[in-house]
TrEMBL record:
<keyword id="KW-0472">Membrane</keyword>
<dbReference type="InterPro" id="IPR018053">
    <property type="entry name" value="Glyco_hydro_32_AS"/>
</dbReference>
<dbReference type="GO" id="GO:0004564">
    <property type="term" value="F:beta-fructofuranosidase activity"/>
</dbReference>
<protein>
    <recommendedName>
        <fullName>Acid beta-fructofuranosidase</fullName>
    </recommendedName>
</protein>
<dbReference type="InterPro" id="IPR013320">
    <property type="entry name" value="ConA-like_dom_sf"/>
</dbReference>
<dbReference type="GO" id="GO:0005775">
    <property type="term" value="C:vacuolar lumen"/>
</dbReference>
<dbReference type="Pfam" id="PF08244">
    <property type="entry name" value="Glyco_hydro_32C"/>
</dbReference>
<feature type="domain" description="Glycosyl hydrolase family 32 C-terminal">
    <location>
        <begin position="376"/>
        <end position="569"/>
    </location>
</feature>
<dbReference type="InterPro" id="IPR013148">
    <property type="entry name" value="Glyco_hydro_32_N"/>
</dbReference>
<keyword id="KW-0326">Glycosidase</keyword>
<dbReference type="GO" id="GO:0005975">
    <property type="term" value="P:carbohydrate metabolic process"/>
</dbReference>
<keyword id="KW-0926">Vacuole</keyword>
<keyword id="KW-0464">Manganese</keyword>
<dbReference type="InterPro" id="IPR050551">
    <property type="entry name" value="Fructan_Metab_Enzymes"/>
</dbReference>
<dbReference type="InterPro" id="IPR013189">
    <property type="entry name" value="Glyco_hydro_32_C"/>
</dbReference>
<keyword id="KW-1133">Transmembrane helix</keyword>
<feature type="domain" description="Glycosyl hydrolase family 32 N-terminal">
    <location>
        <begin position="54"/>
        <end position="373"/>
    </location>
</feature>
Amino acid sequence: MGIIQNRLTIFLVVLFSLSVILINNGVEGFHEIYPHLQSVSAISVSDQHRTAYHFQPPRNWINDPNGPMYYNGYYHLFYQYNPNGSVWGNIVWAHSVSKDLVNWKALEHAIYPSKPFDKFGCWSGSTTVVPGKGPVILYTGITDDKNTQVQCYAVPEDPSDPLLVKWVKPDDINPIVIADKGVNGSAFRDPTTAWWSKDGHWRMLVGSRKKHKGIAYLYKSKDFIKWVKAKHPIHSKSSTGMWECPDFFPVALEGKEALDTGVIGNNVKHVLKNSLDMTRFEYYTLGTYFPNMDKYVPDNTSEDGWGGLRYDYGNFYASKSFFDPSKNRRILWGWANESDSKEDDVNKGWAGIQAIPRTIWLDPSKRQLLQWPIEELNSLRGKEVKMNNQKLNKGDYVEVKGVTAPQADVEATFSFSSLDKAEAFDPSWVNAQDLCAQKGSKLQGGVGPFGLLTLASQDLEEFTPVFFRIFKAANKHVVLMCSDATSSSIKSNLYKPSFAGFLDVDLTTSKIPLRSLIDHSVVESFGAGGKTNILSRVYPALAVGDQAHLFVFNNGTEPITVENLQAWSMGKADIK
Ligand code: DQQ
């Protein structure tokens, strides 16, 4: 290629990257946008922003978690993977196994294009453990260059192999579902885990859209092989666009114990989550599943649409949960894409991580879910430092010393004695992210902003603050939680959003707890015990290695006390 052509290619790539970053929330939005980069392998892999304890393979591109499950003593994680480069393309199901969800061993790819029904791609899907049969994978196959999507079936070649290394896709039954006349065949993907019903049928959902209406189609089968579409979708919602990676499961009304996907009854609520391709945000509703009518109806306290609840208000997409029978819990996996440019990804030789797996259960208010990092993560906690009853007056920044600031787990409780100084809340502030961008962490407030400054350089040229700001509305207080990447790096050409969500927390205790998992290029935070959660990807240039620092801060006029801060230097997970 000549120099001019080279420059033109670089120019076009930069232009493309910028438009994707601006339009699509910084997250990969389309499936065929970098054909010329799909197979550009990394010359070397750059370690600078690689994570130490988040899941990522040694090199190349990853996206959605697929078919996570616990089976015969092993956790399995499959994921969308480009074996040839560090942008999306050439997608296979890569496969890793673990005994503890922290340390992982890679196996050979489980599913890759090899048949007429998946020749152009093996896209996302789920596993179901079928009694008497073992695990079955349902995934989306791409059959042609027009992006035609069908649902396919794969089973382990040797079900007695504890690692389930090899998977087969029987020719005589595949594809198991094709789009019928009423269904948009190029927007028809990501089958869920199936569930067994007393009427003798398996049921599963497939994500879709009709024009701008998001849809989850329901399919039924007696033998897991012949599937028939139910009379109507289990649920749909106008103007939400394509529903990718639907997830549907019950949660117990009381307590933390989880339920297998097919459990119904008076003591459960159901959750329907969809990943919205238009913005690459997800939202979920809590509601009631009426199995006899094949219908799901969201509660009237659960907003159905763009303003709905999110698992995470940051960079977290295409998530999938599974029931872990070994500990009676439901675990949520989600993909966190890069926020740098495609050229950065090609240069780094890798792109994409999985968020820390989270246990999810119903909040006692029954209006939202709670999430918390899996307990196994604590095994990586090393040296611990503490800060007790540290007073923070307006403008105070205090360093938390003695912890590896770029690789840490921090839990802290922030308290205040009065809400009198809370700023007035303008009811037109409906979008938390806009409000966070407007106010930031530096603008002085009344009660807050207060919280952590993570990945901070000594002189604060770079920092990623995770913080709260409390407002006074007509009859209540409104708490804003932010994870703001605006000042995270002196580097330009990065997506640096002010991610934020509102936090439904009881303020009568005058305390707000916060946990942040800091891991080089990710800050994953859990507000008030996992009520509002935000994952940010950041790429500091100065705040790296031992030049990175951790601070607590307060920029509000109300004094804040940091109670019981514990920060652990985190070890490195063994991910091969
Ligand atoms: N990614 C997969 C699709 C899914 C999308 C393709 C979500 O199956 O809809 O890599 O990120």
